[in-house]
Design a protein that fits this description.
single chain; 5-stranded mixed β-sheet; rod-shaped; 5-stranded antiparallel β-sheet; alpha+beta; 497 residues
Length: 497
């Protein structure tokens, strides 16, 4: 699951779940508190909305006592009986209320000794000034803070009387206050639990991958690249893990490539030292022979000088190969691609090879199977270098008294295939896969008679691949080797008008 999706889910969860759970909790607590209130205060029909209006609840709590007081007031004698009034007042005390009785403006009974009774008495309405019922009363503000229900009556002597049921608003029904307190605590608990669950959920989703990436970063910092970082999910952090894993892989490949390059560089230096040592030793030996007078005839001097010249030429060839390889390896050779006629180009190459090979007493066969209109995209100079490098490689390892090299050119669909076949000593099966590797030579002893630096075929492969082609070889020991490479044909694409 993506991190963005997790955050969206968390957003709606932290809104919806607390609301739903709070609604369920309010409903359950309210039912419980309604039962408690109805049981404690002897009322029925209480609803959730009643809890939002404490005055309404207070009015309902004293609804039954109001009717009882109404009945008592019809018997004026009972309103003058202190015992009856005390008994009635005790019932009111259980309902957080008390009784006041007034006769002709004088309070004749007080059911509470609270300090606020005086403030209540001062604000009591006069006889007949209100029309309260069992379901409502009048609110006295200021210091009184009371809800009053009034019952007017006449004493037996004709004096006006008023009885008041006073409910203390400052001390609202405890169950109502407890209800709101429980609701508040419940909502806080729900929010804490929901937030904690979401934080744990997101923490595990985030910190798990981050912990792995921290470990991976530390390993990379310490140079340890031999590990694998597997993403746990297909989300943003998973993709980040995947990117870090790809970076680790590339760093490892780069490190291995560097080690390989360093090894090849050391091998190159060793090879160069070995290949240069023989001609240098020969040149030095023949030069000393001339200086010391060993070559005491014109014929010997001429032979010594020619040997020195040939060895210097070998050294120059080796240096040129190394220079070319360095340019190719760093992509510094500028290619000059042209559209070339395959027939004409390879006919010219064949002419050059026939002359060169005839001078070395090597037979040459040329077979061209492509149509005259076939053209290729190539750098003529570099392709000629490919052919000459392959031919020279064949000549180095030619072991037959009468050498033979064949050049075949074939049309193979979108490519032109060039084949160079020789009848040399061939290449062992174990060596064949490696002949295009840099500095690889099948003669482990590096026999100086064959010359070369072991980079000729790697140069050939590089040039062919830069032309968009590929190169491979087949060989049989003591029979010969055939080199194959293909070049892309030029094809005109018709333009729709």
């Amino acid at each position: 699951m993506k991190l963005k999706t997790r955050l969206v889910i968390a957003f709606f969860t932290i809104i919806i779940i607390p609301v739903l759970m709070a609604a369920m909790m309010v409903s359950m607590v309210c039912r419980y508190q309604i039962g408690v209130v109805e049981k404690n205060y002897g009322i029925t029909g209480t609803t959730i909305s009643d809890f939002t209006n404490s005055m309404q609840v207070l009015a309902r709590v004293t609804e039954k006592p109001y009717h009882e007081l109404k009945d008592m007031s019809e018997q004026a004698s009972e309103m003058e009986d202190a015992t009856e009034l005390d008994q009635f007042n005790k019932k009111l005390e259980n309902k957080n209320a008390y009784l006041l009785v007034r006769k002709d403006g004088t309070i004749v009974y007080t059911g509470s000794d609270d300090d606020r009774v005086k403030a209540v008495i001062e604000q009591l309405p006069g006889y007949g000034d209100t029309d309260t019922t069992s379901e409502n009363g009048i609110y006295l503000g200021g210091d009184a803070e009371a809800l009053v229900k009034q019952v007017d009556f006449r004493y037996d002597d004709g004096n006006k009387g008023s009885a008041f049921i006073v409910s203390d608003v400052s001390n609202v029904i405890p169950e109502v206050g407890q209800f709101f307190c429980e609701i508040l605590i419940g909502i806080v608990v729900i929010l804490i639990l929901t937030s904690a669950a979401l934080i744990i959920w997101i923490y595990r989703a985030v910190m798990g991958p981050i912990g792995k990436m921290q470990t991976a970063a530390q390993n990379i910092k310490d140079g340890n690249l031999d590990f694998e970082l597997k993403p746990e999910a297909d989300d943003e952090l998973g993709k980040l893990c995947q990117s870090l894993e790809e970076m680790r892989g590339r760093l490892k490949d780069s490190a291995e490539e560097k080690l390989k390059y360093d090894k090849e560089s050391k091998e190159l230096i060793s090879n160069i030292s070995h290949d240069l040592k023989t001609p240098v030793t020969t040149i030095k030996g023949y030069a000393e022979g001339i200086i010391d007078g060993v070559a005491d005839t014109p014929e010997k001097i001429d032979r010594y000088v020619r040997t020195i010249y040939n060895k210097a030429t070998e050294m120059n060839t080796l240096i040129n190969e190394l220079t070319l390889y360095s340019k190719i390896d760093t992509n510094k050779i500028p290619y000059n691609f042209n559209i070339v006629s395959a027939n004409e180009y390879f006919n010219d190459c064949a002419d050059d090879l026939s002359v060169e090979l005839a001078a070395q007493n090597v037979g040459f066969g040329y077979f061209n199977y492509v149509e005259k209109n076939v053209r290729i995209i190539a750098d003529p100079e570099q392709v000629k270098r490919v052919i000459h490098n392959i031919v020279n490689n064949s000549l180095k390892y030619m072991d037959k008294p009468k050498g033979m090299i064949n050049l075949r050119v074939k049309d193979v669909g979108d490519f032109v295939q060039i084949e160079l076949e020789d009848n040399g000593k061939g290449i062992a099966a174990k060596d064949l896969p490696n002949i295009f590797d840099r500095f690889y030579r099948t003669d482990a002893s590096r026999n100086s008679s064959t010359g070369g630096s072991g980079i000729g075929l790697s140069v050939v492969k590089k040039i062919v691949e830069e032309h968009g082609g590929k190169i491979w070889a087949t060989s049989r020991e003591e029979t010969g080797t055939t080199m194959y490479f293909v070049l892309r044909k030029y094809q005109e694409v018709p333009v729709n008008e």
